[in-house]
Amino acid sequence: MTRVVILGAGMIAEVHRRAALAAGAHIVGVMASNAARTQSAADRWGVPPVLSLQDLKEVAADVVHVCSPNALHLEHVKAAITAGAHVICEKPLATRVTDAESLQLLSVQRRRVGTVPFVYRYHPLVRELRARVHDGEFGRWQLLHGSYLQDWMLSPRVSNWRVDARNGGPSRAFADIGSHWCDLMEFVTGERIASVMASFSVTVAERPVSSAVSFTHGDPVEPVMTVNTEDAASVMFRTESGVLGAVVISQVSAGRKNRLWFEFDGAQKSAVFDQENPETVWLGSQTSNTILARDPGQGSADARRLSSLPAGHAQGYAQCFEHFVADTYAAINGEVREGLPTFVDGLRAARIAEAVIESARSEQWVAVSRV
Fold first, then answer.
1. Kindly report the CA angle at 9 between 7 and 11, in degrees rounded to 5?
2. Do 131 and 254 belong to one domain?
């Protein structure tokens, strides 16, 4: 049985815990931001507390799930790999490209599996679109565009550790959710972003000092801090083959809870996917439009494998995360499944984010590093 330690005890850590249990793992420890929160999480989950990173060696976990604030990822991933564990690290893999590079290299040197939960790859219809792209159904890409919109940061009362660049890194909205969109675009289309032109917007200039749990509201009477990470971003890009694209990222779009949406327009056909309605995709041509529904009895091998519920029984984010974790554990046991996002993909996301941040600062086109 896979022995798992989770570093972090917030909303996403709970998602990791449930997916680990669904994959048959045994949670052998949890560590939060301080001793009191660690003990509280341990009591809530019914697992032993891990009081320091040095204790990871004694716990002898097979896998460490890193769900801590972004600025701690470098230290936490290093400690986990040094202790001999494989690692699932929340994105961003690190807040600086050089740190992401060092973590990816360390995982290779120590022969440890390292993965990053770009879990939207695990929607069955995303895999179906990818297979159809591979088969040439869409033709040469004409335009790649979309958005990822949320509203959980809309209220000036809401705060989170991500608001402060010291904890979350120099980018918030783009690094947090824009990275998902870019990963999914490249995964489905096979295109690679070569250069970007970006602009950031801070729509709420001040937020409460204390950090609220993600997707919750803070105390309206708390002291405030100046926000130094973006609420929204607009990014235009060109791919290495010359295709034009654009994406709008926002955490302040009223009514949008978690709407990752894309339209990929090819010379023969276009495709539209909406993560809030993942059971269908729209396929368009000059002569007809069709709606393709998820069906475990139809489609590509990957789409069928990831359809864990019968047609008409809606599956979504939770099942994506469960499949991602199960595929990570399978890779640890030597069974590599196609499409698993690894530290290589985490490093790729860090390089794109670095170029986006620099473009927003300089107001110029910036090349994405390929080194």
1. 120
2. yes
For 23, 90, 355, the CA distances from 42, given in Å and listed in that order, are: 20, 20, 40
Q: Region 227-255: what's the mean pLDDT? A: 98
How many angstroms separate the Cα of 113 from the Cα of each of 7, 76, 98, 103, 342?
17, 15, 19, 11, 8
The phi, psi pair for 108, rounded to 5°, reads: -70, -45
The separation between CA 86 and the C-alpha centre of its own chain, rounded to angstroms, equals: 18
Query: Cα–Cα distance between 126 and 287 in angstroms, integer?
Result: 23
Same structural domain for residues 308 and 230?
A: yes
Q: Which residues of 58-93 are buried (b: 16+ CB within 10 A; e: fewer)?
A: ebebbbbbbbbbbbbbbebbbbbbebebbbbbbbbb
User: pLDDT tens, 49-59?
Assistant: 999 999 999 99
**CB contact at 8 A, 364 and 197:** yes
Q: Is the pLDDT of residue 371 over 80?
A: no
For 77, the domain range is 3-118
Alpha-carbon span 146 to 295, nearest angstrom:
25
Residue 344 lies in a domain: no
At residue 245's C-alpha, the angle toward residues 250 and 154, to 5°, is 5
Q: Does pLDDT of 237 surpass 60?
A: yes
